[in-house]
C-alpha cells in the first residue's frame, strides 16, 4: 500500500496544515471548556442537595417523628419533600444509620450504604458517591430537635443522570460555537492559501529552496554590483560586488543609504532623488555607472558598473587621439618646413637654411628640456610634455611657472598625474586660444599645485557645482559622459587630507589651487637637496 504524499505546493501545504491546526485547537478548546463545566455542574448539584437537606432538617415534625422512630410519618414527609424539590432521594436515618425513609420502601429499616458518622457528629457533608441508587451528588446534614439534640441524619441525593442531561444540553451550544469557529478558521485559511498561491506562483517547497540557492549564486557571482532597497530606502540586500564598489560596512542590511554613504551625488542617485539611466557617480577613486529600477512593492533595485578602468582607458585614448592629431599636424608642418628648406637651398641661401634648421630643431627640444629641468618626476614631466604638444596644436600655450620645482619624490605618482592631468584638461577645454600656466612647488612633504588659464573664468555661484558628479557646462562626447574629472580630483585630494579651491586667476580666467599634504617622501627630498 502506497503511503500518501505530503503536498508539494506551498498553498496546499499551508491549507492542509492550517486546517489540521484549526481542527486540533478547536477540539482541545472545546474539551478544556467542557471539563470545568462538568466539575461546576457537579459542585452545583452537591450544593443544591445540601440546601435541600438543610431545609429538610429544619422540619420540627420530621425531627420528632425520627426521634420516635415513626418511619411511616418520616417516609411520608420525606417523599413529599423529594417530589417537591425534584431530588432523586431524601433519606432520613436514626442515630444508628438505620433508614427511616427511602424511595424504595423495601429498604427502610436497613443501614445506609454510605458512612453517616460525619453528619451524626454534627458536620455538613457534600460528595459524589456511589450508592444503591447509583452515582449521585449528595448533601448530608444532622437532624436536630428544637433543643439542638441530634436524633438522626438527613441525606439528599441528585442523580448523575440529571447532571449529565444538563451537561448535554450545554454541549450542543458549545459544539455549535466550536463549529462556527472552525468554519471561520477554515475560510480564513482558504483565503490566505489562495493569496499565497498567487504570490508564490504555485511553486513547490523544493523549488523555493532551489531558487534561493540559485539566487544567492547569481547575486554573488555576477561582476556587477546590485543593491535591493525597501520602500523606506533601507538596504535589504547587497551582493559582494556592491559592497566592494560602495565600500559598505558588513552590517549594511537594514540600514538607510544615507547612513552608510556620505552625502553627495552617489547617495542621491541610489535613493532616487536624482533620476535617469546610466548615471555617472564617483565613490572614492572609482567611477561608477548607476541604474535604479522601482519594484512592485515600492522598493527599488540598483545596479552598479565599475567604469574606473574604462574611464582611464578612455582618457588615455583621448590623449593618444590628441597626440595623433598633433603628429598629423606636425607632419604637415614638417612638410612645409622641408619645402621652405628646399627653397632656400635652391636659391643658394645656405646660411639662412642652416639658421632655419637650428631654429626649428631647438624649439621643441627647449620646451622638453625646460619641463625636465623644473619637473624631475618622470611621470609628471611626461604628462606635461604631452599636454604641451596637445596645447600647441590647439593654439594654446602651456607654460610652467619659472618658480616651479618638483623633485622626484612623489608618494603616489599615479594619483598626482590624475589630479594634474584633469586640471590641465579642464583648462584646455575652456580655451580656444590663450595661455595655461602650471605651478608646482614643494613645501616640505606638502605639494602645492596651481593651474591658471586665460579663459572666461568660473562664476562664483558655480564654483561648488563644478565639483559635483555629472555636472558640466560642456557638451558630452558620445563615447563617455562628462562631469567626472573634477569630481574625481576633489575625491582624491580630500582622501589624501588636502583641499582644492577655485578663484579668479592672474591670467584673467580661473585658477585651481590644490594642497596635498604628505604627497612627497621626506627621505627623497633630503637626497634631492
TrEMBL record:
The Gene Ontology biological process terms listed for this entry are: regulation of DNA-templated transcription
User: Domain Histidine kinase spans what residues?
Assistant: 391-520
Q: Does the keyword rRNA-binding apply?
A: no
InterPro entries to which the protein is assigned, alphabetical: HATPase_C_sf (IPR036890), HATPase_dom (IPR003594), His_kinase_dom (IPR005467), PAS (IPR000014), PAS-like_dom_sf (IPR035965), PAS_fold (IPR013767), sCache_3 (IPR033463), Sensor-like_sf (IPR029151)
Bilayer topology term:
Multi-pass membrane protein
Q: Which residues form the signal peptide?
A: none
Cellular component terms per the entry's GO annotation:
plasma membrane
Q: What is its EC number?
A: 2.7.13.3
Question: What's a Pfam family this protein contains?
Answer: SPOB_a
Show the catalytic activity.
ATP + protein L-histidine = ADP + protein N-phospho-L-histidine
Q: Where in the cell is it found?
A: Cell membrane
Listed GO MF terms = ATP binding; phosphorelay sensor kinase activity
Chain ranges passing through the membrane: 167-193
PROSITE patterns recorded: HIS_KIN (PS50109)
What name does this protein carry? histidine kinase
Amino acid at each position: 500500500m502506497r503511503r500518501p504524499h505530503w503536498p508539494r505546493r506551498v498553498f496546499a501545504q499551508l491549507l492542509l496544515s492550517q486546517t489540521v491546526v484549526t481542527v486540533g485547537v478547536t477540539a482541545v478548546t472545546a474539551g478544556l471548556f467542557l471539563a470545568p463545566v462538568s466539575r461546576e455542574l457537579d459542585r452545583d448539584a452537591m450544593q443544591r442537595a445540601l440546601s435541600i437537606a438543610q431545609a429538610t432538617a429544619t422540619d420540627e415534625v420530621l425531627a420528632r417523628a425520627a426521634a420516635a422512630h415513626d418511619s411511616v410519618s418520616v417516609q411520608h414527609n420525606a417523599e413529599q419533600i423529594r417530589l417537591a424539590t425534584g431530588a432523586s432521594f431524601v433519606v432520613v436515618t436514626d442515630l444508628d444509620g438505620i433508614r427511616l425513609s427511602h424511595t424504595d420502601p423495601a429498604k427502610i429499616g436497613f443501614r445506609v450504604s454510605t458512612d453517616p458518622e460525619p453528619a451524626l457528629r454534627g458536620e455538613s457533608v457534600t460528595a459524589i458517591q456511589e450508592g444503591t441508587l447509583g452515582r449521585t451528588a449528595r448533601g448530608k446534614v444532622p437532624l436536630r430537635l428544637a433543643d439542638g439534640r441530634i436524633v438522626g441524619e438527613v441525606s439528599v441525593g441528585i442523580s448523575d443522570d440529571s447532571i449529565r442531561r444538563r451537561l448535554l444540553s450545554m454541549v450542543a451550544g458549545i459544539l455549535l460555537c466550536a463549529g462556527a469557529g472552525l468554519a471561520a478558521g477554515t475560510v480564513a485559511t482558504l483565503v490566505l492559501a489562495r493569496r499565497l498561491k498567487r504570490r508564490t506562483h504555485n511553486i513547490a517547497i523544493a523549488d523555493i529552496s532551489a531558487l534561493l540557492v540559485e539566487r544567492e549564486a547569481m547575486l554573488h557571482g555576477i561582476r556587477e554590483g546590485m543593491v535591493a532597497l525597501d520602500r523606506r530606502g533601507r538596504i535589504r540586500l547587497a551582493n559582494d560586488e556592491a559592497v566592494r564598489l560602495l565600500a559598505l560596512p558588513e552590517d549594511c542590511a537594514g540600514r538607510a543609504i544615507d547612513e552608510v554613504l556620505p552625502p553627495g551625488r552617489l547617495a542621491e542617485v541610489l535613493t532616487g532623488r536624482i533620476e535617469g539611466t546610466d548615471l555617472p557617480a564617483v565613490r572614492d577613486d572609482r567611477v561608477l555607472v548607476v541604474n535604479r529600477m522601482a519594484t512592485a512593492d515600492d522598493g527599488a533595485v540598483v545596479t552598479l558598473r565599475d567604469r574606473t578602468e574604462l574611464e582611464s582607458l578612455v582618457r588615455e585614448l583621448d590623449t593618444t587621439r590628441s597626440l595623433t592629431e598633433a603628429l598629423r599636424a606636425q607632419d604637415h608642418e614638417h612638410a612645409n618646413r622641408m619645402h621652405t628648406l628646399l627653397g632656400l637651398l635652391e636659391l643658394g641661401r645656405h646660411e639662412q637654411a642652416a639658421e632655419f634648421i637650428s631654429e626649428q630643431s631647438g624649439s621643441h627640444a627647449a620646451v622638453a628640456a625646460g619641463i625636465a629641468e623644473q619637473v624631475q618626476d618622470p611621470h609628471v614631466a611626461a604628462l606635461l610634455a604631452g599636454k604641451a604638444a596637445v596645447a600647441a596644436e590647439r593654439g594654446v600655450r602651456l607654460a610652467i611657472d619659472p618658480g616651479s620645482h618638483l623633485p622626484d619624490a612623489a608618494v603616489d605618482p599615479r594619483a598626482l598625474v590624475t589630479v594634474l592631468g584633469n586640471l590641465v584638461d579642464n583648462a584646455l577645454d575652456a580655451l580656444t586660444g590663450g595661455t595655461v600656466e602650471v605651478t608646482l612647488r614643494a613645501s616640505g612633504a606638502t605639494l602645492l599645485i596651481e593651474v591658471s588659464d586665460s579663459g572666461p573664468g568660473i562664476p562664483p555661484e558655480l564654483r561648488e557645482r563644478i565639483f559635483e558628479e555629472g555636472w558640466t557646462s560642456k557638451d558630452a562626447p558620445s563615447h563617455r559622459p562628462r562631469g567626472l574629472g573634477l569630481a574625481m580630483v576633489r575625491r582624491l585630494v580630500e582622501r589624501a587630507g588636502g583641499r582644492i579651491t577655485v578663484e579668479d586667476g592672474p591670467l584673467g580666467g580661473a585658477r585651481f589651487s590644490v594642497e596635498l599634504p604628505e604627497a612627497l617622501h621626506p627621505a627623497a627630498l633630503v637626497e634631492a637637496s
